[in-house]
Design goal:
The protein has about 140 residues and is mainly β. The chain has a single domain, classed as Immunoglobulin-like (Sandwich). About 0% of the residues lie in helices and about 50% in strands. The chain is built from no helices and 11 strands. The strands form 3 sheets. It has a 5-stranded antiparallel sheet, with no helix packed on it. A 4-stranded antiparallel sheet has the order 8-7-10-11, with no helix packed on it. The chain has a two-stranded antiparallel sheet with strand order 1-2. A hairpin with a 5-residue loop joins β1 and β2.
Amino acid sequence: MPFVSQYISYNYDDSGNRISRDIILITPKNQSDVSESKSDSLGLEKSDILPEDEPYYADKFGPDDVRIYPNPTSGQLKVEFVTPIECNGITISVYCSAGKLKYQKKMMQNPEVIDLSNQSNGVYLMTIENEVNRISWRIIKQ
């Protein structure tokens, strides 16, 4: 069974009260699993950078498509925005399971390489955020 990642989304009412929590399970896909069209089953665009057989996790970052691969990783993790995006103002942070910040970087290029090779094996939380959007990913370092 392939590794399944999860994404948790919260919805709030106008007063700031949480009204729902959605847990979305994300299973890896291969570029070759995507049909010849320019989008995959989630409506996300195909990557011109991602190798055909590389499993990836995809999500939306506002209106933009983002992919994380490989996960699990042995050290080098790539964050790729498939749609053209201005990288200024995007911060990538990685936290250990205890909540301590282990890595932080302003995104300067696309794809951005995150080097976790000097971190111990385990589960990490990676956040990608700008002034408007924020998404979180569970990363496994092997």
